[in-house]
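Running log. JK asked me to keep both predictions on one page so they can be read side by side. First protein, sequence followed by its tokens:
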Amino acid sequence: MTLDQLSLDAPKIVTPPPGPRARRLLERQAQRESNARTYPRSLPLAVARAQGATIEDVDGNVYIDCLGGAGALNVGHGHPEVLEAVERQMRRAIHTLDLPSPVKDAFTEKILSILPAPLQRTVKIQFSGPTGSDAIEGAIKLVKTFTGRRTILAFQGAYHGVTGGALAVTGLRSPKEPVASLMPDVHFLPYAYCYRCPLKLQPASCEVACGHVIESVLADPYSGVTTPAGIIVEAIQGEGGSIPAPARALQRLSALAAAHHVPLIADEVQSGLGRTGRWFGFEHAGIVPDVIVMSKAIGGIGLPLAIIVYREELDTWLPGAHIGTFRGHLPAMAGGIAAIEIMQRDNLLAYATEIGAFLQAGFRQIQAQYDVVGDVRGLGLMIGVEIVEGAGSMAPSSTQSAVIQRECFRRGLIIETGGRFDCVMRFLPPLVLSRAHAQRVIDIFGEAVAVAAHGAEKTRAKVVEVHAA
């Protein structure tokens, strides 16, 4: 089956979105569901079916999906081979808590097989509750139990989830500010965000200055920070703006963590399972963390599953220390096995690298034409395009990014905004995105950027007129 056969023909806009049927469902949702809902606010879409890298709405519009279940759909929507594996397992057993079974054993073996060689036979696996947030909670408890310490170091720009502990180590302030008494003793370090360096330095000459800050926190007896129980990091920040940390920054972090005997936790919930062209994002830097947190794509086709993989010497917690009723979701494990086998057979890691480079090249051509595109970055099919005010200003522009997202949607392309000030267009398509669809992504994105750039020019012209008057 080719990549084109996996998806619907796209894009196809038969009714300007949101169409009448979608609008009715969106209105009913707004009446009944929590104010905390997010995606329908900027993507007014009601889904009828989805296949491969495409989604069809209830009004017959077909979209290229570059949201990809927020990174959960690495082999696409409804991959037939994964569906077959899931359905076969559902006829056998579905919910068995943490009791062993052939499919669980096979899934464990498959996960071990894709780990870096130094870890493959020296780790333990904890099946968590079915969300990445829950696995993050478990990882924090694990390192605190092992070290007997209480402090956690995290990074500015990080996103690890919205449960209590996960939210405490998340950089985004807005969901934290209304919530009192989050987990204490969390300290935030500057992330290697080279386009907007928090230390106002240049990557070519900074000598990994952000690493010097980390060293000072760990080594200075007057840093004010007690020796941490763990350091948690995303090798590529996801919700923070699709920001890959330079390899040397991660290497420095890993070396400092090891030197000070602080377990290093790699959050691979979004960047894991091949999205970046490697099984795990941290592999691009050649480091080996002590704890790896996985979720999203390991459930094959978006089925809920989360695990923690860690060095066996950390396995000092007691039975029942981290549990969850749905930690034994066997259909998700069957789906995960099938997805990994498909990725291996179809060489999707190399393809993610190739098609990601193709997309970035197209986006850089757009960047050369329009000054509202400030930065293009990413690894594999985890790409960010940062939108700025333009006309010589690097100021982030959430106004322009909102226009671009809206114009893309109108033309049949679903993308998410994120990052600081919601100014980053985030591309997380399934790894089965065909080259033809990738070209349409570039074309549509270029059209949307042109609309935003033209609007920005008109706004600047009006400002000049006002000042002149």
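And the second, directly underneath as requested:
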Amino acid sequence: MEVAFSALGIISLFAVIDIETTGGKYNEEGITEIAIYQFDGHKITDTFISLINPEKAIQPFVVKLTGIHSKMLRNAPKFFEVAKRIVNITEDCIVVAHNANFDYRILRTEFNRLGFDYKRKTLCTLELSKKLLPGKDSYSLGKLTKSLGIPITDRHRAYGDALATVKLLQILLEKDTHKKILKVLVKELKPKSKKEKHINIIDSLPSETGVYYIHNRNDEIIYIGKSTNIKKRMTTHLTQDLKKDVLIQKHIKKVSYALTGSEIIALLKEQNEIKENQPLLNQSRKQRSFPFGVKTVSVDGFLQLVIESPQSKNDYIAVFKNKANAKKQLLKWVSEYDLCLNKTVLKNGRSHCDRLELSDCKGACVGKESGKTYNERVRKLMDDVSYPYENFLIIDKGRNTGEYSFILVQNNVFQGYGYYSLNFQLTAEKIQSRLISIENNQDTKHIIKHAITHKKQLKLLPLDSFSSIEEAQKEGV
């Protein structure tokens, strides 16, 4: 979940920090280096990095760990010389750190020495990781970033660790499908006129692909949508007079969003998060996006095509937004695969189907064709519209330059999605670590199959044909 709330007054930014200290007795440590990356959930908006002269000795084990020694700090600024910059870059921000209790305590201690009461809201990526990434052997920053495939340079230097924490936070926000972080972090807006508030909301949003969340005055999410241009879509919501848009205009207080880069991922996130969060104004989408499905049932040795409301325990050839679309596609399949109308839900009630009279039916309805040969064509239909491989990745655009997204299907079951950078080695272990799990259902199956069929720019990696994912990548399938 990309949290870009600066113009809305919810959360201006995150201030992701890391601090190196001299070591020593509790509350007597001094800062030797500090790094702060101001982060709006999808990009770094400001940076402050500096060595600090702590005016005290550095413990030998700290010198060995960080490589920072007293000679390096001789001409570095003292804390009071950079204090104003730290205040400004963290103003209206949530202070984020891996083990935030430590870094925030050190900052407050230094400000207390200056007689300044420094207070900020905090967020701890260590604690978040334990909740959102369960089952890890270790939650230390080094081991956690390694398991997630996050590149980290200059370990135990403030700027390297803080930058790795930014990338970790981005993954954690994406993993937070229940929007627990979002719901905890919201603040009250200052009162504004309705027109001014709507203009400010629209101006704050990106013209990019993603999922957006509309909040009411009680900070509840009342509507979730997706768009390839979030700003344009919200402009429609706030200017049109359709019933749903009028209700949005009446109750909206703020908008948050998650950039996805990939339209397929936006669709997958949208349908999943509507079901999980049950927004008031998504009434028609709370259960399923495609409420009609076509499946086969065996009757007297023939595989018959029927239309029904999808049940979670059943598998469907395809699902549809309405019954009319399901019937239209069913008729198309009957024609393409030389099927018998009386062996479908569209049977006419007579002994033979209408297609027999036109010589388009091979006679299954009057005993001229066996179930064996008829079922071969039905199975051919099922194979043609199923996933192209049993185990595969879909590679699509990422949220920014140098990033890609992936969608994972294993054993014909959709597992979820994730992101990786250009220099990321896509191993099976790291795919699982980066994976944002989404429930597999008929909606997700329809979205993925439709994308494979209609979006020719997608890259598919069939995993069964190769001994490793790396090999599949090299082949460039």
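Observation for JK regarding the second prediction: Residues 392-475 form one domain.
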